[in-house]
Amino acid sequence: MPGVFNLSVDEAVKEVRETRALGVSSIILFGLPEKKDEVATGAWAEDGIVQRAARAIKSAVRDVAVMGDVCLCEYMSHGHCGIVKVKEKPGPQSLGAAAAPPAIAEYEIVNDASLELLARTSVSLARSGVDVIAPSDMMDGRVGAIRAALDEAGFANTPILSYAAKFSSGFYGPFREAADSAPQFGDRRSYQMDPANIREAMREIELDIEEGADMIMVKPAMPYLDVIAAARDRFDLPLAAYQVSGEYAMIEAAARNQWIDRERVMMESLVCIRRAGASMILTYYAKEAAKLLA
């Protein structure tokens, strides 16, 4: 994406210093580990990339709120958001040739076993100085599991910002490519939400609140303004909306082709999200918007 980069820890600290000076009071961290495996070790390791970045940022910029995205997809070798149980079928064979590698016939995301890793990741991030835990995996029961783990580890005051209504969307493409987190097989429709079903979104949000979420989020933002508005009308919690990579990329592509006024459309898109009811906006435009609003 134009103007968006994966940053080393030292460069992330510089970026946060600059962003905070512009008036942006909170950031969210995502990690890209050196190695991936089938139990997302990089997500919960004490020397994981997000843990190291959080410690460095909190040491250098003390008045910024650091949020930590909690998901396993970036750290899993297969790119799914939870532990995968795979059933294989033999690949095609021919005379005189070595057998082809097995092809995946079907798989299952093992929900409850995944909760343990998500809880472990959350505690690890809290220990590293992350102020807000933001689970984005969409496993059932993960907010309750994370809340219990944080409380047990002495982080009862660490709030949870739940990606409560995260839709199975085509707008995530640029981020998945940059984070190398696209599923190696299948898709995420079995645990992310049906874009056509707003009633399910309300049920998911309500369940997360019952499990202990302090804040809720709708993702993506602009294609789901009706969901944001419905959530604002129904739930009296801080409400975030995530203007995702595909939304950003569309604006950038249209602007580069001189089809739109970039700054005007950028600000209009953020105003629309705010108008729908979001009290917080996660956006790649935070720094630029802060400059224009100053």
Tell me about this structure:
The structure is a single chain. This protein is globular. The relative contact order is 0.12. The protein has helices at about 10-20, 40-45, 50-60, 110-125, 140-150, 175-180, 200-210, 225-235, 245-255, 260-275, 285-294; strands at about 25-30, 65-70, 85-90, 105-110, 130-135, 160-165, 215-220, 240, 280. A 4-stranded parallel β-sheet has the order 6-7-8-9, with helices on one face. Strands 1-2-5 form a 3-stranded parallel β-sheet, covered by helices on one side. By secondary structure, the chain is an alpha/beta fold. It has one domain (about 10-294): TIM Barrel, CATH 3.20.20.
Structure characteristics:
294 residues, four-stranded parallel β-sheet, 41% helix, single chain, 9 strands, TIM Barrel, alpha/beta
Number of helices: 11
Rg result: 20 Å
Report the CATH topology name.
TIM Barrel
H/E series: HEHHEEEHEHEHHEHEHHEH
Strands of the widest sheet, in order across it, are 6-7-8-9
Q: What structural class do you assign from the helix and strand content?
A: alpha/beta
In short:
This protein is an alpha/beta fold and about 290 residues long.
Write the topology of this structure.
Layout: H1 9-21, E1 26-29, H2 41-44, H3 49-60, E2 65-70, E3 83-89, E4 103-110, H4 111-127, E5 132-135, H5 142-152, E6 161-166, H6 173-178, H7 198-211, E7 215-219, H8 225-234, E8 239-242, H9 245-256, H10 262-276, E9 280-282, H11 286-293
Parallel strand pairs: 1-2, 2-5, 6-7, 7-8, 8-9
Antiparallel strand pairs: 3-4
Helix pairs in contact: 1-3, 4-5, 5-7, 7-8, 8-10
